[in-house]
Amino acid sequence: MNETANEAADEIRDVVVVGAGAAGLNAALVLGRARRRVTVIDAGDPRNAPAAHMHGFLSRDGLPPATLLDLGRAEVARYGVRLVRGRVEAVDRGFRVRLAGGPVIGARRVLVATGLRDELPDIPGVRERWGRDLLHCPYCHGYEVRDRPLAVLGTGPAAVHQALLLRQWSDDVVFFPHTLEPTAADRERLQARGLRMVEGEIEHLVVEDDRLRGIALADGRVVPRAAAFLVPRMVPRDELLAGLGCARDGDGRIAADRTGRTSVPGVWAAGNVVDPRAQVVTAAGMGAAAAFALNADLLDEDVDNAVRRHRAAAAAAGTADAPGAPRDGAGR
């Protein structure tokens, strides 16, 4: 059950996880089982919400994305993980995690797993069909539309590769360059792969009876198609990480090592926020890797603190045993 932010703000947590997708929840699961005090904060707008099913996740193939998250929330709650519905506005270097509306939750470490958002081209019908019969990932959805007439919309630089890849799922794939200008080498590769190319700017998607029926071009032509693919512009939701001063890599993404550790001590990141190519199963694995590293980092701090307390106690005991020190109430 989700707590309110005010209910969750009463103590310093070992880890605050921002984002309750596969990466965030799997990290919380591992940390909860390690008996860490964990709070997961989520705004409730997962990237894959439009999709009816997810695929490529062993034992969970074909499961609705929302069902996976429901199962995950129930699992982490069994280990004492707190779940808070809310939107994080900022994370101070402290780490004080500030939620919209004012509540603040303190943390020793922070894991950001806020994912990304897909920016779609401004073509009529695209938003309405997104995640239904207008798709992105061949590995996620190619099998479900196998052997059908497929389209690939040339709305981004990766479109040619996507078209070449989709030929594995169907013998009837049409590539629509739209506003792209394929190179001579690209044209040759498409032709050699057995793909047809239809030139002309796309005007809209043709939809009838709540199903994609074709691609309409600006010159009036309509090419019948049963499903279409495009590569959206994937924009990481990395504002919190940027606000903390996390360094970026050569591609402009937040830099993180294999465990998700960023350049800012105490801050980790996992899932699509640092790797746009990560599928659900990959993001879950990234969350687990981050959790192991977070627990090890916390352990180092716990041990250092224990050693300091041990030395202070030993020093105090030594003072008490020194000559002239009061004993058994003497000198009172």
TrEMBL record:
InterPro entries: FAD/NAD-bd_sf (IPR036188), FAD/NAD-binding_dom (IPR023753), Ferredoxin-NADP_redctase_2 (IPR050097). This is NAD(P)/FAD-dependent oxidoreductase. It catalyses: [thioredoxin]-dithiol + NADP(+) = [thioredoxin]-disulfide + NADPH + H(+). Residues 14-286 form the FAD/NAD(P)-binding domain. The lineage of its organism: Bacteria, Bacillati, Actinomycetota, Actinomycetes, Streptosporangiales. It comes from Actinomadura keratinilytica. Keywords: Flavoprotein, Oxidoreductase. Pfam families: Pyr_redox_2.
